[in-house]
Amino acid sequence: MKLYLLSGGSVDVDRAVIFPGDDSHRHVTLPVMQILIEGDGKRTLFDTGMPPEAAGDTDGLKRAYDIDPNWIKPLMSAEQRIDRQLAALGLKPSDLDLVVNTHFHFDHAGGNALLAGVPFAVQRAELESVQGEAGWWDAPGIEFQVVEDDWSPVTGVEMLRTPGHTPGHQSMLVRTADQPWLFTWDAVYTEEHWRTGKLGAVSDVPAARASIERLRQIAAAEDARLIFGHDVGQWGSLGMGDEPRLIVETP
Ligand SMILES: [Zn+2]
C-alpha cells in the first residue's frame, strides 16, 4: 500500500471559525488535505478539496457560494486543484477507482465535480443531511454509493463513523507494518483541539464529544500516530508543500 498526502492549499480563517466563541479576531491558516491510497490494485481518493472557483482567487468562494472572505478566505493555486494534484502523480480522474468524501464541507467535497464519473462513497447520514439541496458536492455524473457505520474501502484502511462535526463525518485508521496512522479529519481540527478538548464547529455537540472520545480510545489502544484535519504545524512537520508527497509505504 502507498499513501500520498495531496495539497489542496489552505484557508485563512478567523480563529472563531475553528474555536467557536473565540473573540480574539486573530486569523489562522488551515491546510486543506486530501489522501490518495494505492492498495488492493485500486486507487482510492479521500476528499476532493476546495471548489475550483477558489483556485487563484481569494474571492472565488464569495462569488460562487457567498462565503465571506473575512471569515473564510481560500488560499489555493491552480496546481492545488484536485485534478492537478492527481496530474502531478501522473494520474487522470479516470485512473481512480473510488472517491470517499469524509463529509460534504466545501474544503472536503468542493472538487467533486472535477471527478464526475468516478464512483463516490459517503455515509448515509451525510447524504440525508443535504437531501434535495444543490451544492459543490454534487454534479451531473456523480453517483453516491451509500455506506453506513464503519467500513473498509481498502485492506488495512478502516473508515470510522465519527458524527458530530457533520451528521455523517468519517475518520480513518490506516494499519501499517509498524505504527498505525489515525486520521481524525475534522472530528479534531488541530493538536490544540486534541490537547484542550475544545470543540470545533459541530452540528451535534453530544455526538461530537462521543466521537472524540472514541478516537481517544482507538488512539490509545492502537498507539496510533495522529494526523489532525487542519493542523498547519503538523503539515509542516510532514514536509508538505505544494506537491503531493508519499508518506506511508508498506511492502
Ligand atoms: Zn475541513
Structural descriptors:
alpha/beta, 8 helices, binds zinc ion
Q: How would you concisely characterize the structure shown here?
A:
This protein has 8 helices and 13 strands. Zinc ion binds next to helix 4.
Report the sheet-strand fraction: 25-35%
Query: What is the number of helical segments per DSSP (H or I, 4+ residues)?
Result: 8
How many individual β-strands? 13
Provide the CATH superfamily.
Answer: Ribonuclease Z/Hydroxyacylglutathione hydrolase-like
- Supply Rg: 17 Å
Shape: globular
Q: What fold name goes in the CATH topology slot? A: Metallo-beta-lactamase, Chain A
Number of domains: 1
CATH architecture: 4-Layer Sandwich
Provide the succession of SSEs: EHEEHEHEHEHEEEEEHHEHE
Helix content: 10-25%
Instruction: List segments where confidence is low: pLDDT < 50 over at least 5 consecutive residues.
Output: none
Give the biggest beta sheet: 8 strands, mixed
Structural class: alpha/beta
Any ligands, ions or cofactors bound here, and which?
zinc ion
| CATH class placement | Alpha Beta
Quote the average pLDDT: 96
End-to-end Cα distance, whole Å, is 7 Å
Structural overview:
- By secondary structure, the chain is α/β, with parallel strands linked by helices.
- The protein has one domain (2-249): Ribonuclease Z/Hydroxyacylglutathione hydrolase-like (Metallo-beta-lactamase, Chain A), CATH 3.60.15.
- The chain has eight helices and 13 strands.
- The strands form two sheets. Strands 1, 2, 3, 4, 5, 6, 7 and 13 form an eight-stranded mixed sheet that branches.
- The radius of gyration is 17 Å and the shape is globular.
- The N and C termini lie close together (7 Å).
- It binds zinc ion.
- The site of zinc ion has 6 residues, from helix 4.
